[in-house]
Amino acid sequence: MDIRKKLIDIKNVTFEYFRRDAEGNVQDMVEALKDVSLEVEEGQFIAILGRNGSGKSTLAKHINALLFPSEGEVIIDGMSTEEEENHLLIRQTAGMVFQNPDNQIVGNLVEEDVAFGPENLGVPTADIWNRVDAALNETGMEKLRNQSPNHLSGGQKQRVAIAGVLAMHPKCIIFDEATAMLDPQGRKNMITVAKRLQEENGITVILITHHMDEVLAADQVFVMKDGHVVAQGAPELIFTQKTLLEECGLCLPVFYQYMEQMHQDGILTDRMCSRIHTEQDLLACLKEVYTQERTGDSAGKDETIDKAFLDYPTDGVGKSKEGLLLNHVSYIYNKGYADERKALDDVSLHIGKGEFVAVIGHTGSGKSTLMQHLNGLYLPTEGNVYYDGQDITDADFSMKELRQKVGLVFQYPEYQLFAETVEKDVCFGPENMDISRVEAQKRAYEAIEAVGLPDTIYDSSPLQLSGGQKRRVAMAGILAMQPEYLVLDEPTAGLDPYSAKAILQMLKDLQQKQGIGIVLVSHSMEEVAEYADRIIVMDQGRKCMDGPVWAVYNQLYRLEKLGLSVPVGNRILVTLRQMGYSVNTQINRMEDIFAELARWKSLMGKQV
What we know:
Helices cover about 35% and strands about 20% of the residues. The chain is of the alpha/beta class.
């Protein structure tokens, strides 16, 4: 009989804090946790879900004694957080990986940072380096061990932070949105690592995430809303509570949504659905039931389909071309030094006004570096960047005007906020454009309305807002400058599904209603499928694909080799076409794919 020890015991915990204005005056009391109780056994894998601001991170910080309850008690491995002498040992027992890796990276080199934790525990030197080697191998960062963390991408930094916690050999690891900045393969690898640590080493894993597919690895799921735990159970049980999930700003995993729709359309039976627990199960079930001889023109197109649509011009685009043009651009970090690194390698592309372009690629592929060339924050080591036909390095070119026309929202937009109130923050840009105060305020109010924020927020401190609201304010600050392009680097990372959808729909509205060009860096292939019109794929600093969303996503094997995933819907369509069925693969939005699957089923006339 398997009798597990109780590692975490949270008893009726309430946590309150004061909300203050810009001058430090108390505005009100906020109850972040409300009578929360839960138990976690040693060696369990649990997931905590909820909207931004639901109390997830606050709860996690109680588990490793960074916060302490106003009421109730937290006991970790038999130690109460009420006793100050327990705090250091509790933090060794429960290691925490934060959403933003910059908050916990301290070393000058990757290997130094990973060694920092065990070194402070007094681990012998030989054992420290054994731990460092193992942790870097687990996270895929061994080749970058001698790099400075400052030269890494956001996703690579996150892997370093995870390695630093692994090297301390904790009994429990808390991942607080730790996969938010990772590419699809990186997320998959980290969940695999977490599951292996649980199964092979008996480590307790607590996963706070908004990626619903990651929850499938958990033994138990806790759903939070407004500081309460409102549901708990196995993932399969939680996913039957669709209404509750929607009320909590969450959604079903995408493959679940397809399974439900295909069941409704008669493509899948009850018996078949009972066997489907993952995306792979869904595809395997389709192949098993609907396999037929490959016939007709649709057969055998798995590797070559639609490549003609990926031949966007890369040479001779023409300097007179309107919009943004990169012509054979390369960029080298620390050129001439021992640690020099080529981040962009001979990249040529054109982004016209009013386009919605997504840039995807594995962690460290050059996406963020590319984005910062678009408004002149970085200048190319080789090649040229043109805006409306003029080289941005020309002596008579106005870099100030470029940065007004091409607004950049960074990976952590909230870092762009600095003023006392939302109004002052959003007004800052237009006030520095030689326009009147009245006109600047008018633009600010219009921008705040455009991003879906109420006018009651004008006098609020931007630093007191939720994560989603902060990002909207940062975007409003750019929009108030009336740009022609909005360049966004992972704007939905770490946001719950409801907030992410709202941000993306806002961007789509800006494109369709105001003609603003949107350039979106994203690791969410599903988001790109729903909102973008074109995809640029980056790999090792080079542009390797460029074309309509559906055409890129039909290249299953090429994308998988690049460490990228393909949305479930496109994978289903390509799988059916590979099986010989005549289906339309020139679509990518979920609604259109649902309609195509229903059409296919009705024409096929096969009953199962």
